[in-house]
């Protein structure tokens, strides 16, 4: 995987991304037709529709890092987000089509009011915590 860190308040290193999204080292499998090595998908890899992508957090937050990976489906551009999730895009030049995928934890959060207009959300699966202040 090729990996580029984006400057920001929170840093994500390549090794942290590999551990978090693949659970350890990235495995490689041979392409069935061309025989070159392809990297396996990160955990939670699911194709999403254009509508789901348009309404996702991809357009609300800046990714922490971006990456590139050769997969069995094609060359994927990976976007690692702040909430331990990510998005991938694979473009098919000949079919004139772009496929979009999400990966990482699909959060199931519990909520807790911790102050006036202040909510704390904790994922039951991975423990990710996000605090949101809804005051004006």
Which terms summarize this structure?
136 residues; mainly beta; 2 domains; 6-stranded antiparallel beta sheet; 3-stranded antiparallel beta sheet; 2 helices; 10% helix
Fold blueprint:
Elements: E1 2-5, H1 14-22, E2 28-30, E3 37-39, E4 46-48, H2 50-54, E5 65-71, E6 74-80, E7 85-92, E8 97-104, E9 109-115, E10 118-123, E11 129-133
Antiparallel strand pairs: 1-5, 2-3, 4-8, 5-6, 6-7, 7-8, 9-10, 10-11
Radius of gyration equals: 17 Å
Going across the biggest sheet, name each strand in turn: 1-5-6-7-8-4
Number of E strands: 11
Task: Count the domains.
Answer: 2
Shape: elongated
Specify the biggest β-sheet: 6 strands, antiparallel
Class based on secondary structure composition and strand pairing: mainly beta
Roughly what fraction of the amino acids lie in strands? Answer: 35-45%
Short summary of the structure?
It is built from two helices and eleven strands.
Q: How would you explain this protein's 3D organization?
A:
- By secondary structure, this protein is mainly beta.
- It is 10% helix and 45% strand.
- The protein contains two helices and eleven strands; from the N terminus they run βαβββαβββββββ.
- The longest helix is centred in the N-terminal third of the chain and has 9 residues, at 14-22.
- It is elongated, with a radius of gyration of 17 Å.
- The mean pLDDT is 91.
